[in-house]
TrEMBL record:
Residues 5-202 form the NAD-dependent epimerase/dehydratase domain. Pfam families: Epimerase. This is NAD(P)-dependent oxidoreductase. Gene3D superfamilies: NAD(P)-binding Rossmann-like Domain (3.40.50.720).
Length: 246
C-alpha cells in the first residue's frame, strides 16, 4: 500500500540507499537534509526535499506537518565525517546529542502530525555484556563507563525510550550491526556484527508496514545477534542486495 514517508536523514548513507527502495515500492517520500547540496541530491533522486535542522523544534514540526506523513523513518546520525581522531569523545557527544535531543524533537513533531508509525535507527552493540547471542529482550548496557557510556547511556537509551515508551504512534527500533559496502566506512564486513548497507536500508523498507512495535536486531547471522524476530516478523533478509540501476 502506498504511504507518505518522512525520511529524516535522507541524504545520509542509509538514506541514500533507502530512497530508491521506498520509491520503487510506490511510497511518496519527503526527505530532510541540512544543506542546499543535500537538497539538490535528494531532488535528483525524485523525492520532495526540505532543508531543516532537527534541533529546531518548531521548524521541524512545520516541515513534518506540511508533509503529512503516515510513517516517519529516523536515519539521522552525526557521523558522516567519521570519528575526529583529535577529539573522539567530542564526536561521540555530538552524535549522542542528536540521538537524544533530535529524536525527542522528531517524536514531538510526529505526534503533532498524527503519524501512525516511527522507525528509528539504533545500534546492535549496546547490550549489557553476556555470552551471545543477544536477544532484543536483553538489557542495554546502562552501567557502561567512559566513551561507551556516551554512546549508550547518553544516546541510544534516550533514543529508544523516546520511540518505544509512548502510545501516540507505533514505535519500531532497528538495532543495526556495523555497516559495510558502498558509501560506508568499510568495504569489508565486520567480524562480529556485519551488516551490508543494502540490507540495512531494506530493514527500514519492510518495517514501514510489517512488524509489531518494539526493537529488532538487524545484522548478518553469525551467532552474535539473534535476528530471528526480524526475519519472522518483518520478513527481513540479511542477504538482500539491490540490483544496480541499468
Amino acid at each position: 500500500m502506498e504511504m507518505r514517508i518522512f525520511l529524516a536523514g535522507a541524504a545520509g548513507v542509509i538514506g541514500r540507499s533507502l530512497v530508491p527502495l521506498l520509491r520503487e515500492a510506490g511510497h511518496q517520500v519527503t526527505g530532510t537534509t541540512r544543506t542546499h547540496e543535500g537538497r539538490a541530491r535528494l531532488a535528483a533522486l525524485g523525492i520532495d526535499a526540505v532543508i531543516v535542522d532537527v534541533f529546531d523544534e518548531k521548524a521541524l514540526e512545520r516541515a513534518m506537518t506540511a508533509a503529512a506523513p503516515d510513517v516517519v523513518i529516523h536515519q539521522l546520525t552525526d557521523l558522516s565525517a567519521g570519528i575526529d581522531q583529535a577529539s573522539p569523545e567530542g564526536t561521540l557527544k555530538r552524535n549522542a546529542r542528536l540521538r537524544r535531543e533530535g529524536t525527542a524533537n522528531l517524536v514531538r513533531a510526529a505526534r503533532a502530525a498524527h503519524v501512525k508509525r516511527m522507525i528509528a535507527q539504533s545500534i546492535g552493540w549496546a547490550y549489557m555484556p553476556k555470552d551471545p547471542p543477544y536477544l532484543e529482550t536483553d538489557p542495554l548496557d546502562t552501567d557502561a563507563i567512559g566513551p561507551r557510556a556516551i554512546s549508550v547511556c547518553e544516546g541510544v537509551v534516550p533514543l529508544e525510550n523516546a520511540v518505544l515508551q509512548q502510545s501516540d504512534f507505533e514505535g519500531i527500533v532497528l538495532r543495526y550491526g556495523r555497516l559495510y559496502g558502498p558509501g560506508t566506512w568499510s568495504d569489508q564486513p565486520d567480524r562480529l556484527l556485519p551488516l551490508h548497507i543494502d540490507a540495512a536500508a531494506y530493514a527500514a523498507l519492510v518495517a514501514v508496514d510489517h512488524g509489531r512495535p518494539g526493537a529488532y536486531n538487524i545484522a548478518e547471522a553469525n551467532g552474535t545477534l539473534s535476528i530471528d524476530k526480524a526475519v519472522r516478523e518483518l520478513g527481513w533478509r540479511p542477504d538482500f542486495r539491490r540490483e544496480p540501476s541499468r
